[in-house]
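Hey, I'm writing a tutorial for new members on how sequence and structure tokens pair up, and I'd like a real worked example in the thread rather than a made-up one. If someone can provide the structure for the chain below, I'll link this post from the tutorial.
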Amino acid sequence: MHDWAEFRHFRYLLAILEEQGFRAAADVLHTAQPNLSIQARQFQENAAVRLFRKMPNGRIRPTEAGIAFTTLARFLLETRDEVIDALIAIERGAVGPARFGCAPVVDPSLFRRFCNLHKTLLPSSSVRPTHGDTAQLAEEVANGAVDAALVTLPLKHPELNIEEVSRDRLVVCLRKDHVLARKTTLQPADLESNLTVLYHPHRQPEAHARQLEQLNEVGIEIEEYSRASHPSELQMLVKEGHGFTLIREGTTLDEALTTRRVAGVHWTVDTAVIYHRHRYPKTVPILIKQLRRELAKEQNNSPSERISLAKKPPRAQPNTNSPVQLSLLNE
């Protein structure tokens, strides 16, 4: 392991790179320039990396590794501060029972995992869950009634931190006995007049608006459709023969239903954790980082329907001279 690396190395080198020189960095850090030189040399020699090059004018230019170091060092130092803030808050009794919210479209297992991470960190602290649509939960987090919530994007709110944690593929849900279920993959043309079960425009306004917006962008307009407020209701309407719907891949399905991907498109439902910019339990940022780390580890170790946040599939562009393709990726 790299036990020789200390936080001061990251703080010093980050200042050197940000200030583009040792003298300016020494002034910012209120330390001697020779001390910075020693720390920078020790780190680079031990790590066997070169983070910068000295220019003739005395300033420095970061290498490719140095550019990456800047981002990673900020992340490390930010996490250090968040960990210390969380420990202080716990010691002072400022972290009580967690009030976490979950929107209906969010993967229930993701919400359970977030709650379990809190219980692992604070076994004696209970979790009080609440459910509601994204807009409702955003207001409850903003006014302090809920500490943090898992919601689906898009969402904008001036008082909230919005941190995306997962991106799940959307697929078409249809009856197993439908003629199109014989196909392993559907074509965009197969959705014409069939994709007629959508989220309710008043009960799930964000999800509904996003569906229509993306469909309209590629030239598909839906005038008549059945409405539902929850994924289970979507399935019920599909089962009863009211048409196809879009659903998160991996959702537990009714035995009469199945799902199919659509060729050439990338649809996702994007999930974020929201919390107040200033008033929030200091453990929340730690829980978000733990959740992201677990999801990334799972994706690296085994095939998953969850799409990497680091790799966004390209948005397909509609072609007026060829069959319409849907592109529902939230970028």
